[in-house]
Amino acid sequence: MSGRSHFRGSDWPLFVFNTALLYSAKGYQFKLLNSRIHARASYFEIPLNIEYKYALGDDISLFAEAGPYMGIGLSAKLKTGKTSFDVDFGNDEDEQDRIDAGLNFGAGIEVDKIRLGVNYGHGMVNLANNEWNTKLRNVAIYAGYRLN
User: Fold this and answer.
1) Judging by beta carbons within 10 Å of its beta carbon (0-12, 13-18, 19+), is residue 37 exposed, middle or buried?
2) Is there a contact between 103 and 67 (Cβ–Cβ < 8 Å)?
3) Distance, CA of 18 to CA of 105 (rounded, Å)
4) I want to staple 45 with a disulfide (CB 3.0 to 4.6 A). Which of 22, 61, 82, 129 is the partner?
């Protein structure tokens, strides 16, 4: 035994690093002065998750994943009644921050190369440049196909 430490991937056969480039459409609503306001925003997101797999058989396994994510805002709109307007990204009080970041937590099942899962994203960045505390939270249900 030595005093040096290192990481060898072969010592961790059940853990994998999982990342992707995702397009996410998010929305929320709130009430302001007797009006209901609907907000929609589009993001490119990059999650950086560590995944743990538990094999139930030869071609079936359960997985859990967690890690940080970063998102870049592409567009945002607010709508009340029949009136809608674009939200600008920037640092002014009437603008929204373009960069979002937070933590992901997810779980699912993989059968052969088909993956079904659910993911929760917890935003850590206040996107509003005013006294409001606006952080994104979302739940996603997804299906995918593993290429390797």
Assistant:
1) middle
2) yes
3) 12
4) 22
pLDDT of residue 3: 43
Q: Which two tokens stand for residue 42?
A: 């589009």
Enter the tokens of residue 137: 């939270």
- Partnered with residue 8 across adjacent β-strands are none
What gap in Å lies between CA 57 and CA 31, rounded to an integer? 50
Query: Helices in 10-117 by DSSP H: which ranges?
Result: none
Confidence of residue 46 (pLDDT cuts 50, 70, 90): very high
Residue 94, helix vs strand vs coil? coil
**Distance from chain centroid for Cα 65:** 12
* CA–CA dist 24, 32 (Å, integer): 26
Domain ranges of the chain: 9-145
Which letter does DSSP use for residue 113 in this model? Answer: T
Sequence-distant (6+) residues with CB within 8 A of 138 are 24, 26, 120, 121
Whether the Cβ atoms of residue 126 and residue 134 lie closer than 8 Å to each other: yes
Tokens for 93?
């009080």
H or E segment to which residue 84 belongs: strand 83-86
Q: Work out the end-to-end distance of the chain between its first and last CA atoms, rounded to an integer number of angstroms.
A: 36
